[in-house]
Amino acid sequence: MPKKQIFTLEYAVRCSPGILYGFLSTPAGLGEWFADKVDERDNIFIFSWNGSIEKAEVVDSELDKFIRFHWLTAPKDEYFEFKIEKTEITNQTILVIKDFAEKNEIKDQTQLWEYQVKELFHRLGN
Length: 126
Prior knowledge:
Pfam families: START_2 (PF19569). The protein is α+β, with helices and mostly antiparallel strands. The chain has helices at 17-25, 27-33, 106-124; strands at residues 5-13, 37-41, 44-49, 52-62, 66-71, 80-86, 93-101. The protein has a single domain, classed as Alpha-D-Glucose-1,6-Bisphosphate, Chain A, domain 4 (2-Layer Sandwich), CATH 3.30.530.20. β3 (44-49) and β4 (52-62) form a beta hairpin. α1 (17-25) packs across α2. The longest helix is centred in the C-terminal third of the chain and has 19 residues, at 106-124.
């Protein structure tokens, strides 16, 4: 099986890091845009899409800065991460998403993230 490679996506967001972080790091927030239903038990998030269930562990986080998840079925060195940055000049909030995919699947994964982020922006009123 080909090794997956990391890719990064960036989106300008019109909201405070604190509000955005809530949508990225809580079951209620993630359930608004990322999955049909999200539960959490003992640092394990359970994501449901159309009856399909995936589990991810929070491996690292910093309040209002970033959260990194590891799918329990993925290799140890793979993760997906939501990072919140502020631009120095304009003080704009930037959402940085890091994920892994096989080289020939990066375009499809990017389109999936675009769809998800569009839903997030809709929920944020962007």
